[in-house]
Amino acid sequence: MVEYFMTQIEKNHKPRGGFKSRRPLRRRRSAHETDKTPRRKMKPEADGELNPVFAKIGKPDTKPFKPDTFQLEAIEAIAHSDCLVTAPTGAGKTWIAEKAIARVLEQGGRCWYASPLKALSNSKWIEFGGIFGEERVGILTGDTKENADAPLIVGTTEILRNQLYDSMHRGEMLDCDLVVLDEAHFLGDQDRGVVWEEVMIYLPARVNLLLLSATIGNADEIAGWLQSIRNKHCAVVEETRRPVDLYPLFLQPSGRMTPFLKGRSLHNKVISWMERGGTTKRFSRLHPIDEIIGVLRDMNLLPAIFFLKSRDECDTALSLCRTPPRRNDVHEFEEELDEFFAANPFLKEHRQLAALQQFRCASHHAGQLPAWKFLVEQMMRKGLLEAVFATSTMAAGVNFPARTVVLFNSDRFNGHEFVPLQATEFHQMTGRAGRRGLDRIGFMVVYPGKFMDLFHLRSILARKPEKIESKLRNDFSMVLNLLLSHGPEEIRTIFEASFADYRPTKKKAARSGNLWKEFLRYLAFLEQEGYVDEKGRLTESGLWASRLRLDQPLLVAECIRQKVFPTGDAALLAALVAPFVSDRSQDVYVRKREVPRKLLTTYYDVMNTIGPLARRMEDEGFEVPSFPLWASLAIYDWALGYDWTLVTTALRIADGDLAMLVSRTADNLRQIASLRDTHPEIAALAEEARGFIMREPVVSESL
Q: What are the DSSP calls for 297-308, one per residue?
């Protein structure tokens, strides 16, 4: 069986000699040295038509705060019903949440504020602590648990969903009067949208629900669905006006800046540039980043966010910065750095610190440490940076405004292939242009290149965000948790309440039938494996396995049932849990002789144990991922106390990838630790193992 499963594990791996990292730690030498495309130095030149536009640049007059009409309308609605608010980034959606929460707290009630990101939850925890008092605000993210009995809880949507599972199981009502779902458009997220939909379905109707989003194309439809399943009104409050006007610009490679549009069409000066052969010119593999920043600086268009395709492009762009800015805020900048480093001393050696200090530029992407990204966000919010190079995924869920956003591509990588930008993604990116209270106008600068379709960009500028589709689907964790408190027929009723089943199309019945059909397939397999009895009720094993809210609950449960997980060695347990959570697309190869014998032997024991179950799952059509050995080695070395840089360098993985692996491994260990009443020994060891791996730089005082 080891041979079978090792084939699954290593089928996509290559020897070190053929190693190809998706996101290398260092920019390949050839990416800079071999770019021989001749390039004229850009000469900043603004088209005369832009003079009245550029005259608007500056800080607006300070006025006493006065709520907008849509904010007052939302506050009135959420007092007695559900409410879905869609408004552009920076329009003031958080103010609505603050006032709604304040009203509930004043009445002695309780609130839950859910967000998609741990970092965003941490930020809101601090923000709300300053508004309502630290003693009244708690946080639950998996990584952090503080003041869990507070009347206002901030946390991730997954934690809220799990609390709803537990409430249904105990037959109790969630002790809450208002739930705020921030970034509600995550309902349509391919991987995590199911969690948002579950929350909306399971939430008791007596609890008012406030949904906040900048990009929902079918708000009325979602509200109609919520009304149909919750039997209460859901008000839709829409605001389409940006708080800061956006002006699209076109930057020619020569350095000449022109308007991008005239009316709703491409500007004739852009068309003229194209007719002169602009789109057929051979573009350099590298954008002249330093010169573009110089043009933006000359035209007073900084700070700017540059959206690029990949992590590697972001880091490469940072390496091309050459010109120090002319600023008089050096003292403030250094004070901020010193204060941050006092809490996060490990970042003093960050390889991109020099660029941050010398050029006031930074790279921001998932390959970096959470604390470093937090520093970049904090410096940008305070106006201390001139440019940030980021991937499009940064556009959602992070308060990260600038005066200008710069676009080089009209497509993006969706995890499988490059596809044209959708209106939703585009509006999230351009929503960062223009800082409320700091700018009277914001700008989008389009720079032409090999992967820039100017006509496509023009078409999505005025297009509404796409409609959100249901992502509800079955998985073993969801099925086990529904069976905790519902019989199969009751679960069928839940599926009939799904957003997928609500959408009025001729295929409605087929979609509900497919969900139910899939559920029955999962149910039959759980019965076969002894987690469900013939009446569809959870067995003793099913009851404790339902508490393993993981990607692979059955495979982890099999290890616990067969007692194959190590005992008495917390570092080894952490290492053996890691392969169950790793990013399957990572391509990291390790030679077996590089792996400690103790780890390798135990790893084989685990693979031998889960191999038969994995084969049965595959035979029944359930997806079984590979379980890479490198993930075990990475977590084992880290748990034993090896230096962070030594671990990332040895395995050639990015800081952010190891941080994510550690964080997700800790989440899984936390789930195992919840089994303290049925499996006290492994639960205690799992808790100890969490402590071994959750330390700096994964966790830091700033986060």
A: HHTT--SEEEEE
Strand duo 304-308 + 441-446: pairing: unpaired
Amino acid at 494: I
Beta bridge partners of 441: 245
Mean pLDDT of the chain: 89
Query: Reduced to 3 states, what is the DSSP secondary structure of residue 385?
Result: coil
Residue-wise pLDDT for 68-90, tens only, equals: 999 999 999 999 999 999 999 88
Integer Cα distance of 191 and 51 in angstroms: 46
Task: State the pLDDT at residue 246.
Answer: 96
Domain range 69-238, CATH class: alpha beta
Do 557 and 545 meet the contact criterion of CB atoms below 8 Å apart? Answer: yes
How many angstroms separate the CA atoms of 144 and 136, rounded?
16
3-state secondary structure of 329: coil
Q: What is the pLDDT of residue 84?
A: 98
How would DSSP label each residue in 450-519?
TT--HHHHHHHHSPPPPPP-------HHHHHHHHHH--HHHHHHHHHTSHHHHS-STTHHHHHHHHHHHH
Which CATH superfamily, name and number, covers 39-59+244-461? P-loop containing nucleotide triphosphate hydrolases (3.40.50.300)
Please compute the mean of the pLDDT values over residues 299-316 and round it to a whole number.
94
Q: Is residue 650 packed enough to be buried (19+ CB in 10 Å), middle (13-18) or exposed (0-12)? A: middle
**pLDDT the model gives residue 582:** 65
686 Cα distance to chain centroid? 26
SS3 of residue 402 by DSSP: strand
Phi, psi values for residue 655, rounded to 5°: -55, -45
Architecture per CATH, domain 1-34+562-703, reads as Orthogonal Bundle (1.10)
Band (pLDDT 50/70/90 cuts) for residue 117 is confident
pLDDT tens across 169-218, in order? 999 989 999 999 999 999 998 889 999 999 999 999 999 999 999 889 99
User: Where do runs of H (alpha helix) occur along 236-345?
Assistant: 268-275, 289-298, 311-319, 330-343
Whose structure tokens read 């639950």? 140
